Amino acid sequence: MREVLDELLQWWRAGETVGLGTVVATFQSAPRPPGASMIVGPGGEAVGSVSGGCVEGAVYELGQEVVGSGTPVLQRYGVSDDDAFAVGLTCGGILDVYVEKVSPETFPELGEVAADLEASRPVAVATVVDHPDPSRIGRRTILRPDQPPTDSLGSDRIDDAVRDDALGLLAAGRSEVLSYGPDGERRGEGMRVFVWAFAPKPRMLVFGAIDFAAAVARVGGFLGYHVTVCDARPVFATKTRFPDADEVVVEWPHRYLTGEIEAGRIDQRTAICVLTHDPKFDVPLLAVALRHPDVAYVGAMGSRRTHDDRLKRLQEEGLTDAELARLSSPIGLDLGARTPEETAVSIAAEIIAHQWGGSGQRLVGTEGRIHHAAARTDAVTTTPTPG
């Protein structure tokens, strides 16, 4: 919903009614993740995408029907065995799309949810998308950390189960459909609840105010990270030199990272890129980063000679083999990159591959699925790869 929120809010505030289709589950090589949305506007407009083009027409028509009937629909779309060009995903994937009618009457909390997103406050929207009792379908509750749910999904048992699971998804920044028994039984079937998890942007911390850092900050912002550039040298760490960074901090890197960890602002989605390749900055910083378990990615720039020297210094600092194995150094994938921009793409490619469990190989030389499931949030160990 995030990518269509501006248009959705505009119509919602005007009192208009729209159809909203949302991907709630994917199977095989589906091109769009859970949470991807498409709006059918009051004037017949189509905004957003649920499949990259494969089933947009079918979802558009269903959205118009749902607006007219007011009855939400959970529809599965997949490739047709008889006709690959029939309505379906010719790439071979399968999508479950939930289509609902949205207006100020059906979704009165939308304005408050949008305010949370604007303020980078975590919020989750849980909606019953499938249930043996049709009257339960479409029930919705808004969940925020340290606050009670806004509405009941049907019983205390359901509410307790969904709240626990939804807050876990929110902490991981992951949207997902959850399955329960009709009354929230953990091992039952029949009820499916889609949780839209709107966590603040994941963070990318770029240490070292050099030209490569400017390119990494630009690519990091493009990928949806909140990017911070940090360097102890005020003459280099300026907003003018890093216009694409969300913030530029003048501080010793290890002190800054320690403060962010203590403040609870580093989580399992955080990517740390150390570009200084200067031992007096790198070693104390990496010692802090590699000892903290809740970091998704830690990479450091430098030649292989620099890498060997860095490992020796970190070992002298008492880091274990398991902690050192988390370090991606030299940073990035082997793309033959030379310029700052090419190097930034190399680094971004490694972060993406690490996040989704990709191999980094050319797809033409691989077999099997193209789209990977998300890697486990506790699986943060990487193998050093060439830069």
From TrEMBL:
<protein>
    <submittedName>
        <fullName>XdhC/CoxI family protein</fullName>
    </submittedName>
</protein>
<feature type="domain" description="XdhC Rossmann">
    <location>
        <begin position="204"/>
        <end position="351"/>
    </location>
</feature>
<dbReference type="Pfam" id="PF02625">
    <property type="entry name" value="XdhC_CoxI"/>
</dbReference>
<feature type="domain" description="XdhC- CoxI">
    <location>
        <begin position="11"/>
        <end position="78"/>
    </location>
</feature>
<feature type="domain" description="XdhC- CoxI">
    <location>
        <begin position="117"/>
        <end position="181"/>
    </location>
</feature>
<dbReference type="InterPro" id="IPR003777">
    <property type="entry name" value="XdhC_CoxI"/>
</dbReference>
<dbReference type="Pfam" id="PF13478">
    <property type="entry name" value="XdhC_C"/>
</dbReference>
<dbReference type="InterPro" id="IPR027051">
    <property type="entry name" value="XdhC_Rossmann_dom"/>
</dbReference>
<dbReference type="InterPro" id="IPR052698">
    <property type="entry name" value="MoCofactor_Util/Proc"/>
</dbReference>
<feature type="region of interest" description="Disordered">
    <location>
        <begin position="136"/>
        <end position="156"/>
    </location>
</feature>
